[in-house]
Amino acid sequence: MSGLLRLDGLTAGYGGATALDGVSLTLVPGEAVALLGANGAGKTTLMKAILGLVPAAGRVAFDGTDLAGVPTERRVRLGLGYVPEGRRVFPGMSVRDNLEVASFAAAARRRDRMERVFALFPQLRVKAADTAWRLSGGQQQMLAIGRALMGEPRLLLLDEPSLGLSPKLAAEVFAAVRAIADSGTAVLVAEQSTARALAVAHRVALLRLGTLLHDGPAEALPPDALRAAFLGVPGGVPGGDPLADARPGG
Prior knowledge:
Elements: E1 5-14, E2 17-27, E3 32-36, H1 43-51, E4 56-62, E5 65-66, H2 72-78, E6 80-83, H3 95-100, H4 107-120, H5 122-126, H6 137-149, E7 155-159, H7 167-182, E8 186-190, H8 194-200, E9 203-208, E10 211-217, H9 223-231
Parallel strand pairs: 3-8, 3-9, 6-7, 7-8
Antiparallel strand pairs: 1-2, 1-4, 4-5, 9-10
């Protein structure tokens, strides 16, 4: 299947240990894909391999272009956006400056992009002149996502966007994730909060120990696949299903 992003047999590791083992995955424009799995499943490694931040074997193609040997900064200019775990905003800079520094566009286009970010995250408009360290954790996450959007990415990679957020702020962030996808940008979101991710995702990709266990529509996610990814068991779980509320409608 063709698509905006295509991974074929992607393999990567650290110090001789394999973190990804032959992962193949495709994303198309306007699609939100939830990348799920337990800690150590390889979610962050997958994103870093797409960006060229870790050595990897296999093929990463973006809009039909093989990215082998393409440096990270060039991949970003081609249309890859990345929001790493932990937000990593520039704390001493204002919200507005955090956004402006992320755009290479001319002034008029930069202003237009900023207006789009403010429309998506109205709280940032109110705080535009404040330094980033004064923002709440949720507002900093909004700023981190907004900063990535300033580069006009065609594919946005989000690593644990709800980490450390209150349920209310996490819900706001994930509503924005779906809005970003609905605007035409492909989104790959790695997340520990399975229920939140599935609520906004069109598709789900399950990783376990670096291997892709399942790739399919979020609304048709097999319960056994979810249990296998998080608990390592293919069948029922003694004492009930601890992941029951993680499935759509659960």
